[in-house]
Amino acid sequence: MANSKDNLSKYGKAFIGFDEISGNAMDSIGGYTGTLYNNPQRVQGWNGKDYAMSFNGINQYVQFNNSIVPNNSSYTIRFKFKKDTVPTVWGNILATTSFSGTANGTHIGISTNGRLSFANIKNGVNNINGVTTSIPICDGQWHDVVIFFDIENNNLNIFIDRINRASRTLQDVNITNNMNMFIGRSGGTDYLLCSIDSLEVYHQIISPIPDKYLVQHNAQYKYHNGTSWKTTTATEENFIQYGMNNLNHITEVQWQELSGDKSIVMWSDFEDKQYASVVLNKEDFTAKELLGDNPQVIYYTDSDNSQIVVETGVDPYSVYDYIGELPTVVAYTESADDIIVSTTTEPFDLYEEFGDEVEVLCHIGGETVNEADLILEANWSPVDELEGDFEVVTWTDEAPDTAQRVLEMKAVPKPQFIKLVNPKRLYGYLDDVVATDISQSYRDEARYFVTDADTSRWYVWDKESETFVEKDASTEQAISANGMKHDELNAITDKQWRTWHKKYLNIGVFLKDNPRDTIVSVVENVSYKDYLPRNTTTVSDTSLYILNTTAKIDLQLNGNLLTGVLSDDDLTRVQYRVSLNGQNYYPHDGSWTTLGSSPQIIALSFASSDIRIDDWNTVKVEFRDFYGTIDYWQNRFMGAYSGLIFKDVYGQYYSSEIGELLNYLDFGVIIAGQTTIEHEVILKNQYGYDVKDIHLYANTTNFPTGMKCEFSTSLSSFTPQPELRLNKTLKNNEEMSFFIRLKTELGATPDANGSFDIIVRADKA
Fold first, then answer.
1. Residues with Cβ within 8 Å of residue 485, at least 6 apart in sequence
2. For residues 411-443, b (16+ Cβ closer than 10 Å) or e, as one string?
3. What does the pLDDT look like over 512-560, one tens digit per residue?
4. Is 119 helix (H, G, I), strand (E, B) or coil?
5. Which DSSP symbol is given to 626?
């Protein structure tokens, strides 16, 4: 992982530290700005210094002016996170999406079991690439979270405090983000009570291994494990396994155990290592503690002691005292790019250099010229005294066909932002916008914006997000910084113009000239093309055809449950068949279902015995209409047990939905009169639909006399109950925890192989 300074310098896309004293949250790499809503508070940062951002979980959040998370490519996200309690509802840490039917993007949040989850949304379908960490992190402590979205290796990994806590194979790598990045919520109302600090976004995968340190002492390589010094060899494997992430834990006394010379040896897998630092902790001290209350400075010299002068401090000086009045800047680089060296000075005018009175001397070579004229033209006109807009009105008694109305004015050109008075109504898709720009200048100062009928908001094409984004056009500086240049406008393709879904088009053109005519901005005309047919259609002959449209299918796969509708716009009869992993599934012989009226409802549940558990499965639905036109729908899904499933805290299943035993809930040896420790069991809904009225109980038929089973919904305040009846709804793919223990009485009948079953029942919500 090198260190953040190295990684950000080479791969960083954004770094948001929340260390501003007040105001917006600023990104120090890409220049993105995060607007604060409802006043989230700055609190002490994760390292005990600077600031972090704290959210109340009710209405506070930050939204940036860009999605920041890369589209359709590998990336790394790292941040520091702290939350005191487990949330009662899902809350988002970071999101680039809403939850609408067409939403696309990424969200990272905390589920109701206190674990961190990552998922993508694509075309409104949630939980693509979804994964949840194996441990809860809502413990009131700061945690270092790193998420690797690795397209090249087709996997996703989440590290918490440098330990891999979740991994999965990517289901879909083509993910775009259609919302500017939120922190503390998403486009919905899923606010989160938490603190967030040091958000880092990288445009590729960084190494998960931090810089490692060993101490070289007496030709040996050593590390301190918190108790004593240990010896190892300086191999890469040993650096990774035994090397220290930092030296902060080593005390001064422990350093003194290594007598003689010592060297710090650092290992890093960062290719372009530029920064390395070692901080050795020592108790604070002052000069007074070292020198006493009355320190003396003693000099020894053979010179006359009257000539000795001792001074403290330094006289004021200028950089020119060291480099002279005409410094030379020498730049060395191996790059072939142009080198630009700039110097900065305060604004000045002629009078500051020469005083209030200036004499001009003129030398003329002509012998016949006996005087010199100096003409000073003032940069002023009576028109300058008129404030606001004005009109020039002329009157003449000449005939209209011979009258010459010409207004000539010499003035300093003023930049202007010109827009159409009436926006153009678009019919069909926009194909192209053509601007005839004949500007003559050493740099391109013309800028272009587009909008619809609302001219208070202006847009430009953003290559990164591949969409039109709103930009500030309220000032000249903002227009120059945000507007499109002529070549950028021309580079927008017809496919990109077709994403302009507004009914109107208005073009804003910013023109800027200067008095020396080195910048002349001229746009002769601006036009646009659309895909509206311009020619009429003449019907000269007609024939009657039977037009058959292909049947269509709308299917959803939730867990192992396949549901949907097969229909045909022609209202002809339809039929279908289903295959699973290349084998016939329904009907079992591979034939088609009987032709039936359209629409037909499809509902199939795949048994765990028919699918590959924890592996990819492919389901294919072929369908055809009465005329024999065939089409198909196909999808891949990760196989999992269906129904209400019991798991342990590490995600391992205890049994399948048909009662197949996969793992034991082992209480070990129980002594009569003893109450066992509580075991956490996770109940997950994998039916494909929501369930309610959950009833949990134990089948204790095989229990020995004097033993009973106790349930509780909480561990911190374990309230023993013989069974659990939960008046709640457990959503599809949602998890909940409950706790169980065994209690025995003195004199209980011994049993060497006691066992029992935990049974769960629920109704469809």
1. 444, 446, 447, 448
2. eeeebebeeeeebbebeeebbebebebebebee
3. 876 556 677 787 778 877 766 555 555 555 555 556 677 888 888 887 7
4. strand
5. T
Across the strands, what pairs with 694? 726
Query: Does the pLDDT at position 751 exceed 90?
Result: no
Both structure tokens of 709: 């089973």
Give the closest residue to 663 by CA, choosing from 677, 687, 679: 679
Q: What are phi and psi of 255, to 5 degrees?
A: -65, -35
- Please provide the distance, in angstroms rounded to a whole number, between the alpha carbons at the two ends of the chain: 47
Query: Do residues 222 and 259 make contact, with C-beta atoms less than 8 angstroms apart?
Result: no
Kindly tell me if the per-residue pLDDT of 313 is higher than 50: no
Task: Kindly state the helix (H) or strand (E) to which residue 291 belongs, with its residue range.
Answer: helix 287-291
Q: Residue 567 carries which side chain, given as an amino acid letter?
A: S
DSSP sequence for 149-176: EETTTTEEEEEETTEEEEEEE-S-----
DSSP annotation of 586: E
Helix (H) or strand (E) holding 494: helix 494-497
Sign of the CA dihedral running 113, 68, 65, 126: negative
* Angle value at C-alpha 78, between 95 and 142, nearest 5 degrees: 100
Is 576 in contact with 600 (CB distance < 8 Å)? yes
Q: Where are the beta strands (DSSP E) in 482-538?
A: 504-511, 519-520, 523-530
Q: Which of 530, 536, 516 is nearest to 440 (CA)?
A: 516
> Rounded to an integer, what distance in angstroms lies between the CA atom of residue 71 and that of residue 174?
8
| Rounded distance between C-alpha atoms, residue 103 and residue 118, angstroms | 16
For residue 131, give Cα distances in angstroms to 128, 558, 635. Answer: 9, 16, 19
Helix (H, G, I), strand (E, B) or coil at 487: helix
Dihedral angle computed from the Cα positions of residues 578, 583, 586 and 592, in that order, rounded to the nearest 10 degrees? 70
Rounded Cα distance between 382 and 384, Å, is 5
- d(C-alpha 691, C-alpha 736), whole Å: 13
Here the tokens at position 378 are 């003032």
C-alpha span between 13 and 76 (Å, rounded): 10
CA distances from 552 to 124, 168, 359, 546, 630 (A): 20, 33, 90, 18, 10
Provide the 8-state DSSP code for 384. Answer: G
Exposure of 131 in the CB half-sphere (CA atoms within 13 A)? 19
CA dihedral for 670, 672, 676, 681, sign (positive or negative) = positive
Q: Whole-angstrom Cα distance, residue 653 to residue 661?
A: 9
Whether 319 has a pLDDT exceeding 60, the answer reads no
CA distance 567 to 405: 72
Q: Is the pTM above the cut of 0.70?
A: no
**Torsion sign across C-alpha atoms 637, 148, 202, 49:** positive
Report the C-alpha gap between 255 and 132 in whole angstroms.
42
Amino acid identity of 293?
A: D
d(CA 745, CA 708): 9
CB 24 within 8 A of CB 79: no
